[in-house]
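Model it.
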Amino acid sequence: MPPPPAKVLIHVVPGFAGNDLDGVPIPNSGWYPSCPLISTAATMLLFSRNRSYVFLIAGIFLFVFLAIRKRSYQYSYVIDPFQSYHGDGSGDNFLPGSSGDPNYVPPNDYFDDNTDNNVNDKDQNDEEDTADRIEWSKLKPNYPVQDMRQFPKGSPQWLPKVQKFIETEPAAERQVRLERRDAVKKVFQRCWNSYRKHAWMSDEIMPISGGKRDVFGGWGATLVDSLDTLWIMDLKDEFKEAVEAASRIDFSKAPGDKVNVFETNIRYLGGFLAAYDLSGDRRLLRKATEVGEMLYVAFDTPNRMPMTRWDAVDASKNKPQEADESVLLAEIGTFALEFTRLSLLTKDPKWFDAAHRITELLHKQQDTTRFPGMWPVIVNARTTEFNLHNDFTIGAMADSWYEYLPKAHALVGGLLPQYREMYEKAMEAVIKRNVFRPMLPDNANVLVSGLVSVSRSGDDTVYSLKPEGQHLVCFAGGMLALGGKLVENQTHVSVGEKLMDGCIWTYSHMPVGIMPETFTMLPCPLTISPEKPECTFSETKWKDAIKRHLEAPDDISPEELNSLIAEKHISKGFTSLPDTRYILRPEAIESVFILYRTTGRKDLPEKAWKMFEAIEKNTKTELANAALSDITRYDPENEDESKRYPEKTDSMESFWLGETLKYFYLMFSEPDLISLDEWVFNTEAHPLRRLVPDLKGLFD
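Modeled.
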């Protein structure tokens, strides 16, 4: 007897019985009668005498169909995310057994015996004074929404596969890879244990003194930023303890200082959502909703644009508020992933509405800026004029808006086509004018992205490139690789790869093997193009550029110039180093990780390991890891031991555990751990589950 038809389907449809469905019965979702091919094959299987022939024909049909699709995904049910308008998240249109299923219960051994998963967070804090608490969700809005945007109905689209198949390595190479993964994990554990001992529930530990610092509302930024890292690194005991602590964070008290809405969104809301998507612990979704309710009040302005530096105390008293006239593009544009995911999980469209209003305005004005295709660094949120200023970059102050364009496209399964449209237009402009090839001593064919200022000269528009590279903008290589895969544009992938190579080059040509915050380089002539990559290094041109950047006298002697270069620790290829700090940033390894997953380039694991070794060697303290004040300070022969290596500063931002070490760990993990075909990272490296087509969509 052959197995029943439903079981046949489970075996022949790739990806359907994946990691998230282990042990979960496939529900009767109503798609089977609508699939004529499978229905016919099943009937023939049951009644035909020559069943081997039927198996062959059905297999050929299915193989051809899947080959045309070129897809291999894990399917989930997403039909109408807002079926229950302003609901409580208790609907039934999520994949049974996944974190979106309201009836999901983690394994029996997940919680301690004395842990009640249904305990209300309020009850856990009954002993605290409640006089100054605010129920953000019950504040009466001064400017209520009149026309709520709704998330589009329908099944997500089939998007191109992102991850490249990476062949299983020989046993010896695998052993090396796993040893490196475990080395990263040990660094994380050392830092986590120190945070737990010295700064528990505070935002940051001070890694030299052992003190603590509250810089992001005092809600435990390191704790929340690290939740998903704990889960990914299989530190489940630590995760349980961290969730217990995080569930007691009180977001009902308005902090005295102004709230950075951007940072609160990416660290706290993103952190809770990712930890929930990974673990299914409903307490985490409740905390995400609490943060979302608080942040939503920052959007209570006449035009529904957010207060990016928000006075929560005044807002809690229902004082009218109005968006600012000068706002950073990144800070107003970085809500699409977190707010959309929260709406999908709660079935409450208000967060999607809040983020999508911003998206609509930016989409409408994309072609009206002084650099069509891009948006300026500074925008006016009060008048909703996003096209007036002159400086354009994908770097600091604008970065995550551009980063979220392809990622939002992936998150919503292509159901909001404006994200793809904006991404493609923006990258066309970026590649044309912001990206440049630097003149380097080894003539390396790499790319860097700078800032473009736009001015008028008579009737002409003048585009001036400031060739300043930033560690932060190293994310762009991964963005273009991911986006290029999603929209099937190989040029984007290639440019992304060269941008990543530019960051690797910068790391390897610094004295201690670590990239500075900012630097400048000499662009190759504009006649250089990918088709004409020649760009021979000229020491004369390099030194002339240094004189301009350092504003040296025209009559400076060659000897004096050489002394100045040595004094400023400027290596060949760089023309100035305006900011020589390293603050434990993740962007370089982020792009190396994404490019490895998307291209499978075999040299990248070794390059990533060299980066990790340099960072760990130079930033390690007795307790954790510390930022560096000057990565050019390297004099191993100096008699004064304190002057041999870069000086450490008493700072360890939460993204060291939430981003940097997470990406290093994933770099040396199995490629199906947080697959880019199933997850998308927010700008704080918190993985959110993508919408992907349901099984019915395979046959539509």
